[in-house]
Amino acid sequence: MAFATPSVLFDNHGRPLEYVRLAVTDRCNLRCFYCMPAEGIEYLPKNELLSYEEMERTVRVLAGLGVRKARLTGGEPFVRRDLVPFIGRLSEIPGIEDISLTTNGVLTAPHVPELARIGVKAVNLSLDTLDRTRFHRITRRDELPRVLDTFYALLAAGIQVKINAVVMDGQNTQDLVPLAELTRELPVDVRFIEEMPFNGGSHAAIGIPWDHRRIREHLAENFPGLTPVASKPGATATDYTIPGHLGRVGIIAAYSRTFCGTCNRIRLTAEGGLKTCLYDQGVLDVRALLRGGASDLEVQEALANAFRFRAANGFEAEQQRPLHQLSFESMSTIGG
């Protein structure tokens, strides 16, 4: 079908929208304390999740609006059955040039050869520590060996690997240096992420002692010659090289929100909610449109209209939320 809008869509602040993060499930096989309570969260009934067909249709419409990259997230994507065939179908959508994944790696290793065959370009691997005891304490599961199996399988398959490590005071700050050391001999990016308030708990969000400045200072103390490199448009991480290292380290100021000015991404939650900012409450019920009989053109127009009222940054989006109750959400429901 023909679309009436230009090939690149800009929001009301002049930022191109080229990248969708697609949560395929709200379920997860880990219980990381910074993401959800120990007992887990109340998962959505299956019929309230977008079907693969609905997600595929939405991505086709978004591709008509200029979206070129799709990243599959969760929850944990691989807890949903038939994920890999779905990825294959997404890769065939005209206009989608880049398919990538974010995973905790527990169930991923057996699928790596097929991911490489399909053409998955990059995988972000959530890994907050290389210490098995701390991994168990943080995730409430003893799964570090399986995650490391995935890590090495991805490298062997030639898939770009980025490790995402959430930096938590009193929990894993001693792991920053060992994780960064992975970049010495391996072509991997290790990104350290400021802790965010999306933990599914009931306490209010507070400031963080390990912000992007302190993380950088700690890395610089341990790796002399730490040098920033130019960021690509829309990048969330500030990347650094270390002399003699094959890979790079990066810092994502997710709580400080220093990268909002060039943000080019949107999120689609597992239940079909459109989020034009990680910190907003959701701006459009895409599932209702799809199941209400809307045509592709009507869905496209609704999406384009939502993009015209996008918050300037995460702070503005947070202020627009009722009661500012960020901590009642889990990152598992938001979509990584």
From TrEMBL:
Subunit text: Monomer and homodimer.
InterPro entries: Aldolase_TIM, Elp3/MiaA/NifB-like_rSAM, MoaA, MoaA-like, MoaA_NifB_PqqE_Fe-S-bd_CS, MoaA_twitch, MoCo_biosynth_MoaA/MoaC, rSAM
UniProt superkingdom: Bacteria
EC primary class: lyase
Catalysed transformations (reactions): GTP + AH2 + S-adenosyl-L-methionine = (8S)-3',8-cyclo-7,8-dihydroguanosine 5'-triphosphate + 5'-deoxyadenosine + L-methionine + A + H(+)
Family listed: Belongs to the radical SAM superfamily. MoaA family.
Residues given in the record as [4Fe-4S] cluster 1 binding sites: C28, C32, C35
Functional pathway: Cofactor biosynthesis; molybdopterin biosynthesis
Gene Ontology BP annotations: Mo-molybdopterin cofactor biosynthetic process
Taxonomic lineage from the root: Bacteria, Pseudomonadati, Bacteroidota, Cytophagia, Cytophagales
Listed EC numbers: 4.1.99.22
Protein name: GTP 3',8-cyclase
Residue positions binding GTP: R21, R71, T102, K162, R265, I266, R267
The protein's required cofactors: [4Fe-4S] cluster
Cofactor notes: Binds 2 [4Fe-4S] clusters. Binds 1 [4Fe-4S] cluster coordinated with 3 cysteines and an exchangeable S-adenosyl-L-methionine and 1 [4Fe-4S] cluster coordinated with 3 cysteines and the GTP-derived substrate.
Domain Radical SAM core: 12-226
Residues that bind S-adenosyl-L-methionine: Y34, G75, S126, M196
Residues where [4Fe-4S] cluster 2 binds: C260, C263, C277
Pfam families tied to this protein: Mob_synth_C, Radical_SAM
SMART domains named in the record: Elp3
